[in-house]
Design goal:
- By secondary structure, the chain is of the alpha/beta class.
- The protein is about 40% helix and about 15% strand.
- It contains ten helices and nine strands.
- The strands form two sheets. A seven-stranded mixed beta sheet has the order 3-2-1-4-7-6-8, sandwiched between helices. Strands 5-9 form a two-stranded antiparallel ribbon.
- Helix 1 crosses helix 4.
- The protein is globular.
- The relative contact order is 0.16.
- One of its GO terms (cellular component) is plasma membrane.
- Its main location: membrane.
- Pathway: Carotenoid biosynthesis; staphyloxanthin biosynthesis; staphyloxanthin from farnesyl diphosphate: step 4/5.
- Keywords: Cell membrane, Glycosyltransferase, Membrane, Transferase.
Length: about 240
């Protein structure tokens, strides 16, 4: 059997309840790419110290499940990438819905000569304050060229050349990764792309269940740069799992 041409990596901590809602969108997008490209893809779910049925749920959908016990999102993504066999890598989260065209568009971009890129998120929280905060971050990313880790992609070669995600950061590791990927792309004349014609839809559970003031405190440009290597500083994000 030929090796897969693309690998989707999904970190997951206690996501048994969310995988049935979101993983099918990833599989449908991957199937669309397989149909149009004639290639084969794979999905790797990295079970990150779950205490629920995350691993069994992911496996029931046909995903390859591997384990990473250290609670650090950069490390989890790197663990998935290390097990990947595809020459193209697509990173998303367990609570993100992909549009049907997502993986095809990302693969086409990489085949066209870019080292990678991202698909912007569309958050639709219930409260006005949360919506305004999301709109601010959309503007911030648009003006500064950043990208969230909810849907990032890179060629396996580029990922290896820049050393993957930093596993000494507990927050903003996705922004830092994309900054290095973009710099690498410029250096090899293969710039990153933002697929603005598409949007992925992440869960808004944290925006809907946490107060707007609490979200504003933890999601602003100042706090987002504060003690990023401190697990104690960011323990709320890892331990206060919102369901």
């Amino acid at each position: 059997m030929t090796s897969p041409g693309l690998t989707v990596v999904i970190p997951a901590h206690n996501e048994a309840a969310y995988l049935p809602r979101y993983l099918p969108t990833v599989l449908a997008s991957l199937e669309r790419w397989q149909e149009t490209s004639g290639e084969r893809g794979e999905v790797i779910v990295v079970d990150n110290a779950s205490t629920d049925a995350t691993a069994d749920m992911a496996a029931s959908y046909g995903a390859q499940v591997i384990s990473e016990t250290v609670r650090n999102i950069g490390r989890v993504r790197n663990t998935g990438a290390a097990a990947a066999r595809g020459r193209r890598l697509f990173f998303t989260d367990a609570d993100v819905a992909l549009p049907m065209e997502a993986i095809t568009a990302a693969a086409t971009a990489m085949d066209g000569g870019t080292v990678g890129g991202a698909i912007p998120p569309l958050y639709t929280p219930k409260r006005l304050g949360a919506r305004l905060l999301c709109a601010y971050w959309d503007h911030y990313r648009d003006t500064r060229g950043g990208a969230q880790g909810v849907a990032q992609f890179a060629t396996a070669v580029a990922f290896q050349e820049i050393g993957g995600y930093r596993d000494d950061l507990f927050m903003s590791e996705d922004v830092e990764f994309f900054h290095r990927l973009a710099a690498h792309g410029r250096s090899v004349n293969a710039p990153v792309v933002i697929l603005d014609e598409l949007r992925v839809r992440p869960s808004t559970r944290r925006y809907d269940q946490w107060s707007s003031l609490r979200m504003l405190w933890w999601q602003n440009p100042v706090t987002a740069r504060l003690r990023l290597s401190s697990p104690r500083m960011w323990r709320h994000w890892y331990q206060s799992t919102v369901r």
